[in-house]
Design goal:
Largest sheet of chain A: 8 strands, mixed
Order of helices and strands of chain B: EEHEEEHHHH
Largest interface: A-B, 64 and 63 residues
CATH superfamily of the largest domain in chain A: Aldehyde oxidase/xanthine dehydrogenase, molybdopterin binding domain
Number of domains of chain A: 3
CATH topology of the largest domain in chain A: Aldehyde Oxidoreductase, domain 4
Largest sheet of chain B: 5 strands, mixed
Strand order of the largest sheet of chain B: 2-1-5-3-4
Structural class of chain A: alpha+beta
Structural class of chain B: alpha+beta
Radius of gyration of chain B: 16 Å
Oligomer: heterodimer
Number of domains of chain B: 2
Number of helices of chain B: 5
Helix content of chain A: 25-40%
Strand order of the largest sheet of chain A: 32-8-13-14-15-7-34-35
CATH class of the largest domain in chain A: Alpha Beta
CATH architecture of the largest domain in chain A: 2-Layer Sandwich
């Protein structure tokens, strides 16, 4: 008889792969799940923020005397109380909880009132007198580059350039010169925002032991914890952050928010609980959403459509603060070479400060923009070369266990299978170009990381850790700092632990997202939780299972490595009649070893690239997606209807297919919204109204998103090609499926009516304009016409693996010539 | 203006329960439910009538609680998510949302479920198109709606089987 499968390399499962009600599903369906604004404490006060009406101004004075005197007001805070700056990235500590000398966008907080209720706090806000001296404003990266004398920050590369970088992997000009064709295209991707259904809320209190407790809708309690210690100048051990269940995040709750520092400080000053909940308008000012990005692609191909070299330039509108900007800047390029074999790649990126709410990470972080450009350009290339765009892609997909020109290591790779699957599901071969006038099909592909290989702050410690505690009742409690956003991280934690111990996931209690109790997890970002938390959980479960097996083996008269765990029972692999309940095994082990606990932790593998900057892009694994969108375009109105979308996602393994499918469809939904309508756009008020640069649509009515009536049916295929770096092979699914939708839609519109909209969102006015140009015999394209002169630096030059490189930078021109 | 405005006192019929409550008269039904009656199952996403997260039933009709003054609700039958389950037994809509992925983050769920209940009370076998239409005022950012439609369809089947 065969030995039982090793717990970490199982292929037959009790729980994994079976559709199940998620562990928190019941609480959500009955309205019992508590979100941050649902929390109430005795003696609780309420905070409100006064926000700047100016996009850029010196704060000359703030007089809070009248507000302080208002009945029911307990405290008024200004920037004076917050001398220490913060920022999610160590290199961009450029924010203060309340503005000190300067405001940098409409909505920048200047003062805070803490009062008995929200109504009173709002009244007192009106009594604060702020004297502003308006400054010239920067509305776009182009303006920022043209006016370096109007500096929004006094740090950065130069003028208003926050980050500026250049990398070259192999001689790209030579590669382009040797290509059969070189395509040059410009694309623009407008900014958009997360629009989580839950507005950010936070409740701060001082616990009985005198320590600070902040319960907050945050995706990253650990980073918030560090930043609170910094800004409040308190020992981190005296601060506890609980990430309450998030009502959606999508990246919008990754940055520490001004309000979180304000209520924490107020609670510490008053010794009373203080709560804040942002209004929906304020959520638009907190933002940290998708960067508007202008892109230029110069791409060389052979006559049969294989890539030879690519030169990508990006220009990011960063908004008023650093936020995740240094990472976002990298992400507008680093994942570009992961989908198709690309022998040489040059990538230049520049992020410019503007007087708008700060941009940051939104689902896909920095990668949807270049993916849109790349995949639309590929469609143009296929058209010009007379190739089927699906076939062309299929012929050049990257291989499993390969390196990119930029030294990213790709593990498992199901992209080819994804393409074949969506081609089959959509009837691509039979239906394409046969749907009749105004109707079309478009295809696009993408990839995403399963967690960033490097932490936001440099350290050698684990990225995720899990503690497992068992007791004689059979209860299994699993502790992890991971944060539930709705994506199902608690369910993943319960399912993996249950599978490894052969018990029902309903018997696992998850305690998560609490820096006072749970071991570190870096947060719910970069699609890292399933992989990193999951590997940590399997390590902990493996260790505890050894203790259980050792104790049970004696009673079952077998060897520890022949003890099997399944369906809440423990038995001898060779004779399943020798058996006991899981609870009995726990009791035996507790008697033999004492209290049963184990920890597990995970850090990603060291990336192969060694050049400076090689830390952004590496991941333990990459997911892949392919998508076909069908469209109908009304030639009279430019209105685009999407009857159906097919998507295949290489997930490695679907832990709970209900959740996995939900993440895929949810990603498609958000991508389609970005493609068709979502935009965080700004306009200048006329001079008589201060010329301020204001948000055009800071409400859920005016910020268009897809409703139930707009959403097409989505047919999902989950491609399961387990990745050895991932828990039971499971890769990410939270972000990847969004990415191919926008270019697939643009390509479908071309297929339908022969116009190119090289700009997102693709609104009816743009389609109509392109159709009019087509009718007049002009170039049937709407999109950016020029790319400004950006002072990109000299590139860091690295030889690709196949040109004899070792992953290090070649220093200087001599080194490069020698190569 | 007084910092602590005068309060009104009235009895509200919430989930069939007679609830005496005092509150400031400017308060919306949403605020009174959440802040004065402790019924935080009803959520808010905008407080401007744009998102549907706060939908409750008043006399069987779906209503946005953020747009309704609580003082106008005396003598009307208010139903919230808390009143839907039978003890610990979930309503078929709640069970379907939990089982089929109709709820991800859960923040829009209460409003979705209550709006769907109003639909199924009137139309036990709605088409997919009717479900889409009925829920078009309830935004969801997680699911892409499809698993919500499927949940409503499943619940409709369960309810029909229970009442042949």
């Amino acid at each position: 008889m065969n030995a039982p499968e090793k717990p970490l390399q199982k292929t037959r499962f009790d729980t994994i792969g079976k559709p199940r009600r998620r562990v928190d599903g019941r609480a959500k369906a009955i309205g019992q799940q508590l979100f941050a604004d649902d929390l109430v404490l005795p003696r609780m006060l309420h905070a409100k923020l006064l926000r700047s009406p100016h996009p850029h101004a010196i704060v000359e004075s703030v007089d809070v005397s009248r507000a302080r005197a208002h009945r029911g007001v307990h405290l008024v805070l200004t920037g004076a109380e917050f001398p220490v700056p913060y920022g999610i990235m160590p290199v961009s500590q450029d924010e203060h909880p309340l503005a000190r000398e300067r405001v940098r966008h409409v909505g920048d907080p200047v003062a805070a009132v803490i009062a008995v209720d929200e109504q009173t706090a709002n009244e007192a806000l009106q009594l604060i007198d702020v004297k502003y001296r308006p400054l010239p404003t920067i509305a776009s990266p182009e303006e920022g580059l043209a006016h370096p004398e109007t500096r929004i920050h006094d740090y950065g590369e130069q003028g208003n350039i926050h980050r500026n970088q250049s990398y070259e992997f192999g001689d790209v000009e030579e590669g382009l010169a040797q290509s059969d064709h070189v395509f040059e295209d410009l694309f623009f991707y407008e900014g958009n925002t997360h629009l989580p259904m839950e507005q950010q809320a936070s409740l701060a209190s001082v616990e009985g032991d005198g320590k600070l407790l902040l319960s907050s809708s945050t995706q990253n309690p650990h980073y918030l914890h560090r930043q609170l210690a910094r800004v409040l100048q308190m020992p981190a051990a005296h601060i506890r952050v609980i990430a309450t269940a998030n009502g959606g995040g999508f990246g919008g709750k990754c940055d520490p928010g001004n309000h979180e520092f304000v209520v924490s400080k107020a609670a510490l000053m008053l010794g009373r609980p203080v709560k804040i909940c942002l209004t929906r308008e304020e959520v638009f000012y907190q933002h940290r959403g998708r960067h508007p990005v202008l892109m230029k692609f110069r791409t060389g191909v052979t006559k049969d459509g294989r890539l030879t070299a690519m030169h990508l330039q990006t220009l990011l509108d960063g908004g008023a603060y650093g936020s995740h900007g240094p990472a976002s800047t990298f992400y507008t390029g680093v994942l570009t070479p992961v989908t198709y074999e690309l022998p040489r790649f040059k990538f230049e990126a520049c992020r410019v400060f503007t007087n708008k709410p700060a941009c940051g990470p939104k689902r896909g972080h920095g990668t949807p923009q270049p993916r849109f450009g790349q995949e639309v350009q590929l469609d143009k290339i296929a058209e010009r070369l007379g190739l089927d765009p699906a076939e062309m892609r299929l012929k050049m997909v990257t291989q499993p266990d390969s390196l990119t020109a930029s030294w990213l290591r790709i593990g498992s790779n199901g992209l080819a299978e994804c393409i074949r699957k969506v081609v089959e599901m959509s009837g691509w071969k039979d239906r394409r170009r046969k749907l009749g006038p105004g109707r079309g099909l478009g295809i696009a592909c993408s990839t995403y990381m399963c967690g960033a290989g490097v932490s936001i702050y440099w350290n050698k410690m684990p990225h995720s850790a899990v503690q497992l505690l068992l007791d004689r009742s059979g209860q299994v409690t699993v502790y992890c700092g991971a944060t539930e956003l709705g994506q199902g991280s608690d369910d993943v934690l319960a399912a993996l632990t249950a599978e490894a111990l052969g018990i029902d996931p309903g018997n696992v209690r998850c305690v998560t997202g609490d820096t006072g109790i749970t071991p570190i997890d870096l947060g719910s970002y970069s699609s890292r939780v399933t992989i990193m938390m999951g590997n940590a959980a399997l390590q902990a479960a493996g260790r505890v299972r050894e203790l259980l097996a050792s104790a049970a083996a004696e009673a079952l008269d077998t060897l520890p490595d022949r003890v099997a765990f399944s369906q809440d029972r423990v038995f001898a692999a060779e004779d399943s009649t020798k058996t006991m309940s899981f609870i009995e095994a726990v009791a035996l082990a507790e008697a033999k070893f004492g209290t049963l606990a184990a920890v597990g932790s995970y850090a990603p593998p060291k990336p192969p690239g060694k050049y400076k900057g090689a830390g952004v892009g590496p991941s333990p694994a990459y997911s892949f997606s392919a998508c076909v969108v069908e469209t109908e375009v009304d030639p009279h109105t430019g209105w685009v209807t999407v009857p159906k979308i097919w998507i295949a996602h290489d997930i490695g393994r679907a832990l709970n297919p209900v959740l996995a499918r939900g993440q895929v469809i949810g990603g498609v939904y958000m991508g389609l919204g970005e493609a068709l309508m979502e935009e965080q756009a700004f306009r200048r008020l006329p001079p008589k109204l201060s010329s301020a640069l204001v948000h055009r649509n800071p409400s859920m009515l005016d910020y268009k998103s897809l409703t139930s009536l707009d959403m097409p049916d989505v047919e999902v295929a989950l491609i399961e090609d387990p990745d050895p770096n991932c828990p039971y092979g499971a890769k990410e699914v939270g972000q990847g499926p969004l990415l191919p939708v926008m270019p697939a839609l643009a390509n479908a519109i071309y297929d339908a009516v022969g116009v190119r909209i090289d700009e997102v969102p693709i609104t009816p006015d743009k389609v109509l304009r392109a159709l009019e140009k087509k009718a007049k015999g002009e170039s049937p394209r709407v999109g950016p016409e020029t790319f400004p002169a950006v002072p990109y630096p000299q590139p860091t030059f690295v030889l690709p693996p196949w040109e004899g490189g070792d992953g290090n930078e070649l220093k200087g021109r001599e080194g490069r010539k020698a190569a | 203006m007084s910092a602590v405005p005068d309060r009104v006192h009235m009895r509200l019929d919430v989930n069939g329960e007679d609830m005496p409550v005092s509150f400031a008269p400017y308060k919306t039904l949403l605020e009174v439910l959440r802040e004065d009656l402790g019924l935080t199952g009803t959520k808010h996403g905008c407080e401007l009538g744009e998102c549907g997260a706060c939908a409750v039933l008043i006399d069987g009709q779906p209503v946005l609680a953020c747009l309704e003054l609580a003082v106008q609700c005396e003598g009307r039958a208010i139903q919230t998510i808390e009143g839907l389950a039978n003890g610990t037994e979930l309503h078929p809509l709640q069970a379907a949302f939990a089982d089929l992925g109709g709820s991800q983050c859960g923040y829009c769920t209460s409003g979705m479920v209550m709006t769907a209940k109003a639909l199924l009370d009137k139309e036990p076998a709605p088409s997919r198109a009717r479900i889409k239409e009925a829920l078009s005022g309830n935004l969801c950012r997680c699911t892409g709606y499809q698993q919500i439609w499927e949940s409503v369809e499943q619940a409709a089947r369960t309810l029909r089987e229970a009442k042949p």
